[in-house]
Amino acid sequence: MKTTKKDPIAKEGYVFIASFALASLLIKNKYLKSALIGASAFSTYFFRNPKRQINYTENMVLSPADGTIVDIGKSYERFFFKSKVQKISIFMSVFNVHINLAPFKGVCLDKIYNKGLFISANKPKASIENEQCALLLENEQGQKIVVVQIAGIIARRIVTYTKPNDKVEAGDIIGLIRFGSRVDIYSEKELNLAVHLNQKVKGGDLIGYL
Question: Catalytic residue among 43, 75, 127, 181, which?
Fold first, then answer.
């Protein structure tokens, strides 16, 4: 089951939407019924998959997520580069779209899933201690970045569609994270940034140039 650009709602969301809606039909207590209807409506909103206008040229790096940029700096990337490189962190609240996108056109070279904790995703140590899935991506010019999906205090499920040897187009759906989370971008080559700290971004917005 893989969500595509054509799906208005992420396929992973239907079980939540339907479960809350069905439960509301079976419950007689009007307050609980209202709460369940509200939960179904919120699930529909949370798992929305809006259409994106992707404007991409070579050497661009696009935002893989909707959210707020909470960190820009140098940090040790432990999965693939194993060195201190440039990092950009995007925090996704429960009100952001939680579908993640490919930051450029290229290929997935490797993928690592790492179990961990569920610290609030807006804290820096979440990049080290939380459950996460890292993708090593290479663009057509041979430049590499790492995209890391990180679970949060409420997020308990990382979904990653992309796997090694998959080719991706800029803006392709690579996965999603349920209910509040974070995405880190690591670049071996320093990006010429087009964003700043605390800026709100959407998936497919320009982050910078390699």
Answer: 181
